[in-house]
Amino acid sequence: MKKLPLPPPHLQVPPGFGKIVARVISDLLNPAVVGIFITGVLAARIIHPLPRAMVWFSATVLITTLPPVGYIAYLVKTGYLSDFHMPQREKRVKPVSVIFAWLAFSVAILLAIRAPAGMVFLVASVLVEVALLGAITFRWKISFHSATIMAAAMATLFLRSKLAWGVWPLVFVIGWARLRLRRHTPMQVLAGYLAGVLVAAAAFYVLQLYFEVW
């Protein structure tokens, strides 16, 4: 088995319980998992009855999420990435570009199979967020974790979901975890939060014009 390279010295974190907790949090609240959560919340709100919502939720997740996750896992296995969270900025450009292309293709697939417009719109919104974060990544490292958890928190707020009580504290939890692991600076985490707010606010402004989600 090929031995994976160690992260750069400034990204290596001293061992300790805090590091273990931070790593578990980062794994459990990674952008893919948070994206699945947002998809489920929105599907349950705008698609009826519930069984139909579950079908389209499952289809959307299978189409949009599994291939990119599999691709990143492949890059980790082959040694291109040191871990699933892509700690080195310059190594993020390739996978983020592929994810962007796949999401664009996913929009076309969802349109072809006549998915509910809300699901298509959601994936298109994620595409916009990936484009924004990807463009920034060319020059500067921004936190995808903080951007996606903030977008999820904003989604629960706009949808007036009771889940907001549980999601909003996670915004700060994931920020702490990324800082504890030294994967980001405070500014990179805050920039991710801002990106999540901007994309979510724009998306739900458009969404409320065309769908009864309130």
Give an overview of the whole structure.
By secondary structure, the chain is mainly alpha-helical. It has one domain. The protein has 9 helices and no strands. α2 packs antiparallel against α3 and α2 packs parallel to α7.
Quick take:
The protein has 214 residues and is an all-alpha fold.
Descriptive terms for the model:
mainly alpha; globular; 214 residues; single chain; 9 helices
Output the radius of gyration.
17 Å
Instruction: Please report the total strand number as a whole number.
Output: 0
Shape: globular
Q: Work out the helix count.
A: 9
Order of helices and strands: HHHHHHHHH
- Strand % is under 5%
How would you summarize the topology of this molecule?
Elements: H1 17-28, H2 31-46, H3 50-64, H4 66-77, H5 93-112, H6 117-137, H7 144-158, H8 164-180, H9 186-210
Helix pairs in contact: 1-8, 2-3, 2-6, 2-7, 4-5, 5-6, 6-9, 7-8, 7-9, 8-9
